[in-house]
Amino acid sequence: MSPKRRECLKKGVKVAIMSKNVEKRVELIKEYEGKLPKKVIEDALKIAETTKMKDLKKTMERAVEEYQKNLIQPGEAAGIVAAQSIGEPGTQMTLRTFHFAGVAELAVPQGLPRFIEIVDARRDPSMPIMEIHLKEGIREDKGKVIEFANRIEEVKLSDIAKIEEDFTNKQVIVVFDMKKLDGIELSFDEAKKIVEKNARRKAKEVGDNYLIFEPGFSTLKSIRGFKDKLAEVRLRGVPGIRKAAVLQEPDGTGYYLQTEGTNLKGVLVLPEVDASRVFSNNIREIENVLGVEAARNAILIEAKKVLDGQGIKVNPRHLMLVADAMTYDGEVKAIGRQGLSGQKASVLARAAFEETVRHLHEAAMTGEVDYLKGVTENIIVGQPIPVGTGTVKLIMKLGED
Question: N or C: which end of the chain has fewer CB within 10 A?
């Protein structure tokens, strides 16, 4: 037998032994089906080929031990525990609304005010912020990233021009700052076309750096309205993105943008943007653009970010319960009288939270029935609550062997 053939046979035997060992490890992992969640089993199968049998067995046993330790028992008051676990350390939160995140230009909402914004599911956060990560080939070049940042910053007519009313002649005068106009790489003629298009009328008079419009209105209020409309004309950029700061990626591989103002839909369509890594702190906007599951994930991420920023440790499962409660029926709802607490099935539970008389009055008028299935309503009427031993019902049949 030639040396080459002998070497091939050795390799074949080695591969067969390795394959047999992997099969044994897979069988070992599958023995834990039913004891561990499906996702844990899937993750274990990924490391089956590279992990020794002894180490794999130890890992699986430890996983079962940790999983059993963290299981919630039937009848556990999960909601009350979650509320206490978040609420108690929440009293240690700072009341400062903002702190600077490495850039003096951009302030990031933090502390209790931000946490309240999240659980209230506010339509607009006090400081809407986006993180925009770019594709390979762009994010490594700081010059290209800065150029992109300048291109997406929204520039309105009022930012680069002085707009005045001439009530005597019933005119509106727009005087451009030519240095600022050059700064956004826009010519006077291009700016003139954009303004005239949005104003839906031609300028009556055009100078070297000014436009004069006659809106054709006779009242002071109408002329002022036309002036305000001109001030909001967008000359360049993505609507809503007021400022964009360039920051270095945490791993040092490139640069990304942090913006003041958000426009998730407008940013995701840009070809330079890595759509899988764009994040907005506006939870309602995420819900509208990406759906309720993405909004649930955003609630969890934002809440954890606020608590971590304050050095407060809360088990993520408590935050997950809050996120689930806010989104379980397919839309984001606040925790309050306009949301979860005000829409409970129980009349007494609603009345116990806020606006007691109104809830009782409306329920009496409509003949609403309270089936006393929750905690609050059972406390009110003095019955055992459906928690712990209160969840168990025992039936005894007397006179039978």
Answer: C
What is the pLDDT at residue 16?
45
| Domain termination site, one of 195, 219, 236 | 236
- The dihedrals phi and psi of 254, each to the nearest 5 degrees, come to 175, -155
pLDDT at 135: 92
Count the Cβ atoms, other than its own, within 10 Å of residue 194: 16
Contacts 24+ apart (CB under 8 A), 155-160: 155/184, 155/234, 155/235, 155/236, 155/237, 156/231, 156/232, 156/233, 156/234, 156/235, 157/195, 157/230, 157/231, 157/232, 157/233, 157/235, 158/231, 158/232, 160/184, 160/191, 160/235
Mean pLDDT across the chain? 85
Q: Could you identify the residue written with the tokens 């707009």?
A: 163
Mean pLDDT of the 344-366 span? 89
Residue of 389 and 11 predicted with greater confidence? 389
CATH number (domain holding residue 173): 3.30.1360.140
Total count of domains within the chain: 3
User: Which of 33, 54, 70 is a domain's end point?
Assistant: 70
The parent domain of residue 173 ranges over 155-236
**Per-residue model confidence as pLDDT tens digits over 121-177:** 888 888 899 999 999 889 999 999 999 998 999 999 988 999 998 888 888 899 998
Residue/partner pairs of 99-106 with CB below 8 Å, 24 or more apart: 99/309, 101/258, 102/247, 103/245, 103/247, 103/258, 105/243, 105/245, 105/260, 106/243, 106/245, 106/258, 106/259, 106/260
Candidates 219, 188, 224; CA nearest to 206 is 188
The model's pTM is 0.77
**Nearest to 338, CA basis, from 114, 90, 122:** 122
